TrEMBL record:
This is PKD domain-containing protein. Residues 1-67, 80-163 form the PKD domain. PROSITE patterns: PKD. One of its GO terms (cellular component) is cytoplasmic vesicle. It comes from the Bacteria. InterPro entries: Ig-like_fold (IPR013783), KIAA0319-like (IPR029865), PKD/Chitinase_dom (IPR022409), PKD_dom (IPR000601), PKD_dom_sf (IPR035986).
């Protein structure tokens, strides 16, 4: 069975190696991914999850290499799961949000645990892939999801639930001034139909009187 590690950075330690009659002067590592290293303890970062066979070769002060007896170890670099809590939500007071963690995934294993935490004055915890929660008071609430896979690796994600304050309707009555408006009657001009003809030498003229109406 390969040794499972939940991080891509692995520490290799050869301090348990020994030589009965001489001192070990060099430690050569082959990490199984095409990379090599030197030293009693070395760190190596694997670029991708997967199974690798690491090999250690030691050389003592006499120059004899332990090529045949070199130690090999199989290592499986576990890919951690990816949590997906969903998108942010905006609701009214008293609304219910349905949370769904089914979009979370683990590429090389299984998700064995879903843990939700809802900030609601104090944190409330749910251990399920899906659940519903009602929010009574206006405000912003953080909801976190942590998933754990079958190798013990974990990952977290979160979303924000915004509970909007309800709108307040207000009606204001505006009272206008009660000023009395005065009406002005404009006089109307009227034409009198009576006409007086005055004889003028060489010219005949007609005078039309105009009387102002009341």
């Amino acid at each position: 069975m390969p040794e499972v590690v939940n991080t891509s950075q692995v520490l290799f330690d050869a301090s348990a190696s020994s030589d009965a009659d001489d001192a070990i002067i060099s430690y050569t590592w082959d990490f199984g991914d095409g990379s090599k290293g030197e030293g009693r303890t070395v760190e190596h970062v694997y670029p991708l999850p997967g199974t690798y066979t690491a090999q250690l070769r030691v050389t003592d002060a006499s120059g004899c290499a332990s090529a045949v007896q070199s130690t090999q170890k199989e290592i499986r670099v576990n890919a951690p799961p990816v949590a997906d809590a969903g998108s942010d939500q905006i609701i009214a007071p008293g609304g219910t949000v349905h949370f769904d963690g089914s979009r979370s995934l683990d590429q090389d294993g299984l998700i064995t645990s879903f843990i939700w935490q809802v900030q609601n004055q104090k944190y409330k915890q749910y251990k399920a892939e899906k659940f519903s929660h009602r929010f009574e008071q206006p405000g912003q609430y953080q909801v976190g999801l942590t998933v754990v896979d079958n190798d013990g690796a974990s990952h977290s994600d979160s979303l924000t639930v915004t509970v909007n304050s309800p709108p307040i309707a207000r009606m204001q009555t505006l009272l206008g001034s009660s000023r009395a408006r005065k009406s002005c009657l404009m006089p109307r001009a009227r034409l009198m139909r009576t006409a007086v003809s005055l004889p003028i030498t060489g010219i005949s003229a007609t005078t039309v009187p105009v009387k102002a109406g009341r």
